[in-house]
Specification:
single chain, mainly alpha, 3 helices
Length: 73
């Protein structure tokens, strides 16, 4: 098992290599999809959109676009 110091050194070296490659670290915070509140909100939004004509149009567009995925490179 690695010690904290070894792990820290490994992470530091990794970050230095990434910075040398012209990259920088970015942290993203996203909703916790496992949270009951998230699931409840998602369900509510889906029910709200269920009979919306604009939603049907967007879904149709999305499904049509998905048929072209094989040609992506």
């Amino acid at each position: 098992m690695q010690s904290n110091k070894q792990a820290t050194n490994k992470l530091t070296r990794h970050r230095e290599r990434m910075r040398a490659a012209g990259l920088r670290p970015v942290q993203f915070w996203v909703p916790d999809t496992r949270a009951p509140e998230f699931v409840a909100q998602l369900r509510l939004q889906c029910l709200t959109l269920a009979n919306d004509p604009a939603e049907a149009e967007v879904l149709g567009f999305t499904e049509q676009a998905a048929t072209h995925i094989d040609s992506w490179q």
